Amino acid sequence: MEYKNESLKEKIHKFVETRPYISFVQLERHIGKERFAGDKLLSLPHNPMVVLWANVSEEAIRAITELAAERKIFFHPAPVETYHSDGKVLNFPLAKKCISYKTYKWFPVTLCVTPPKEKKALASPCEFP
Q: Which of 1, 16, 53, 62 measures 20 to 30 Å from 123, CA to CA?
């Protein structure tokens, strides 16, 4: 149930709590394009050429980044097939290593409230395996 005064941050957190390992495609469908979609890239702050998702609003980026910093959501590496099955992929080459890139690379992830069990998972958007 959505309340009129529910913040985007609360809405994202509740959705990730009830549906673990969701893709950004699923999150955008749930939130709605009017609040989620924008013209920004959600990237790793220390490696801005590594993109987690594209065409995101500033409000959504702020909400997701805050939830990750508060350790309320976590990013888990995901196979590209996850996004293919959801019907949307980014048009960037895949990021395969933790290096500085000169061009944009996509690192597909899913969101979950469960802390990562493996070092390969991203505890926040400030980490990269």
A: 1
CA–CA dist 11, 26 (Å, integer):
13
Q: How far is CA 24 from CA 4, 11, 53, 69, 99, in A?
A: 23, 14, 7, 18, 23
Model confidence, pTM: 0.85
58, part of any domain: yes
Compute and round to an integer the Cα radius of gyration of the chain. 14
Asked if the structure places residue 124 within a domain, the reply is no
| Dihedral sign (CA 124, 30, 90, 102) | negative
> Considering the domain boundaries, does residue 43 fall inside one?
yes
Tens of pLDDT, residues 31-61: 999 999 999 999 987 889 999 999 999 999 9
Q: Which residue shows structure tokens 């395996």?
A: 129
3-class SS of residue 6: coil
Burial (CB count within 10 angstroms: exposed 0-12, middle 13-18, buried 19+), residue 31 = buried
**61 domain residue, yes or no:** yes
Sign of the dihedral defined by the CA atoms of residues 108, 114, 115, 120, in that order: negative
